[in-house]
Design a protein that fits this description.
single chain; about 170 residues; alpha+beta; 4 helices; about 20% helix
């Protein structure tokens, strides 16, 4: 999987999140799943998030890039964009993901680019285009995220519902 790539954040984002004790690259990643899959976020801003995923290790039985792997890449990139749009006082929850798979890929690395289709106060929708190393479109995806107030530090999710939201909703 190679050396980890450092994500490039615009100075305004670094300033906005500075002093909160938050590890931006760790927060804006796919966590253990993304690490296991070799997902790398190369560039991150609310207006554009770019990341890569190796095909090797992320294939289905026919040897093609697994559609679920494309979905993980798409949801991760769009979620990062939505989190950056929302800022540190809101949490982001994906509520709708759709992926259209255009062509199979057997080798190399795919690159995803997420850009906002809509960025509002309570929701954000991103379009994600995933291409192969030749620039051919592999998948087009769309993710809508709900933007909710972040729980206060140290505040546990609602015990009765298991929800991170005070009213018990999931999005």
């Amino acid at each position: 999987m190679g050396e980890p790539t450092t994500t490039r954040f615009p100075a305004a984002i670094i300033d906005q999140w500075a002093g909160l004790g938050i590890d931006l690259p760790a927060l804006f990643s796919a966590g253990a799943l993304g690490e296991r899959m070799g997902l790398r976020i190369l560039e991150a801003a609310a207006e554009k998030v770019v990341g890569t995923l190796p095909v090797e290790g992320n294939t289905q039985p026919y040897g093609l890039l697994h559609g679920g792997a494309s979905a993980v890449l798409a949801e991760t990139l769009a979620s990062v964009g939505a989190m950056l749009h929302a800022g540190p006082n809101k949490m982001v929850v994906g509520v709708d993901l759709s992926c259209t798979h255009h062509r199979g890929v057997r080798t190399g690395t795919v690159t995803g680019v997420a850009t906002p289709a809509y960025a509002g106060r309570t929701a954000a929708t991103y379009e994600i285009v995933i291409t192969d190393e030749r620039g051919k479109r592999v998948c087009t995806a769309r993710l809508t995220c709900a933007l909710r107030p972040a729980a206060q530090q140290g505040q546990a999710p609602d015990q009765a519902t298991g929800s991170a939201f005070p009213n018990g909703s999931v999005a």
